[in-house]
Amino acid sequence: MFNREPDDTEEEIILNLELEDGSELECQVECVFEYDGENYAALIPTDEQLEERYFFGVEIEDKGEETEFTLTNIEDDDLLEELAEAYEDAEDGEDSEWDEFINKKLDDE
User: Among 64, 85, 94, 106, which is 20 to 30 Å from 77 by CA?
Assistant: First the structure.
């Protein structure tokens, strides 16, 4: 199940990814979403000429007044492919599990 609920109150989060060659790439956290019961983040480079999207696991720790997010690498290539496909379906507005989730929520109201 893909659960990506947009939030207009989100502030822009910029961070640097360290690449395999030791260089850094500045990225924006596009969104944090739930897929199959786990939290993930989609990051995009701030350089608009790069059309990559990176996915990371997210560990969320509530520290009272603050919430701490830790990004973790995803080693499973099949999971990365599933995340990319589910994300693209939701982004393209294709009929997907995301649409079924939203429609069910609307029907329940």
Answer: 94
